[in-house]
Amino acid sequence: MANTTAAGPLDGVRIIDMSTVVMGPYAAQILGDLGADVIKIESPGDTIRMGPYRTTPGMTSLHLNVNRNKRSVALNLKDPAEHEQALRLIDTADALITNMRPRALARLGMTYQDVAARNPGLVYAQAQGFRSNSDRAGIAAYDETVQAASGLVDIADRVLGTPMILPSILADKVAGLTILYSLLAALVHRGRSGQGQHIEIPMTDTMIAFNLVEHLAGHVYEPAEGPTGFPLSMLPGHRARRTKDGLACVMPYSAQNYRDVFNAAGRPDLAADPRVNTENFNLIDNDLYDLVDECAQALTTEEWAEVCAKHNIPMGPVLELEHAHEDDYVRDGHLLDAVEHPTEGLIRQIGIPVRFSATPGSIRRPAPLPGQDTADVLAELAG
Asked: What is the CA radius of gyration of the chain?
């Protein structure tokens, strides 16, 4: 499983991952995939290691998915000797990622000011729920609460009639990607100037900015010229369709697309509908979406794929996660290969989605046992 020869675009960069759960570890794992030497300082109590496991306590599926390409060093930051070892590791780093709350960092003497005094070139990426200069600073934040605070729950309530949390830890992962690009930008700046810096990534601010790209809509203008909410996304009929044998996202985006869908379904009467035969075609028409729902059941998913490819109609089959590893596209892209983990046996490994022509990423280390690299990493400090 391990490939120790591949380098990657971040070869020679050292990252200290002092984060927990998903957001920070996800960002740090991608940095590791791109060649960085990622040292994960594990202080007792990371909840990502709690839950079902196959053979080894702490080796949960979520841990396996966000902590590969890292070396795990177990240090109790409340112990003076181990705290000093952690600081010495940070002294060797190019960047650090943490999602500890500000008060905890202050108690530990590990704020940006504390560690920058020792390592002024350090890029210090600090993620938290809310801005440090706001009245919400220091409040505990979780993916669900950030979905609420950023407007996602409002959008779901307006479309679905229920204030549901989206069934994905979207806020954690978007914030993780924001950590990633912010940290890389700061490393570029440091390469030009030699200057380290502190980066604050508030999850709620990140998700408000992310959500409002399309959903600010009529409120872009002052005074507002319409409601918030991206009209197309807000349509109840904006969904995948049930075909004769499954599900597919058949999404006509033009009058011609609609006519081609209706004709392929054997409905020339609908293809002649005035609404799809006018220069003033209205894409935001939920009744038309309902007609596509009816027509979708006339053909199989494969037949729709052929029709849509022929007529340049946006279409995608719905990937059933239970069978994702059997999907041709997933298999050919090595997105879920089966690999042998040293302690957990055969596992499905999420692949690296980005391809570099000169410096490809690689998976060199499997997700580690808690503290499995402590002795080796600390020996490097001594050496």
From this structure: 25
